[in-house]
Amino acid sequence: MVASQTPGALLARYHPLPRGPRVCLRIARRRDLAAIADLYARQGMPVHQLSLARLVSFDLLTMLVLCATALIDSRETVLGVGAI
To answer: Structure pTM?
Structure first.
């Protein structure tokens, strides 16, 4: 029998990766703007400020943006971002 998970059980909790840090999945917030911009810069990907603003200012009825974060050097660091 497969154990069911409660809704929201995957969000805002830390999940250990097999070969990496513990990662937290959570909804993106406005204060994540600089961290998401830093993520793009670390990957060498140019991004327009308007695109960044849209990632952190969205309507939950039309879009959902999640961040994957981890504590690196005692600081929350955005490791990934996704929108649907």
So the answer is: 0.79
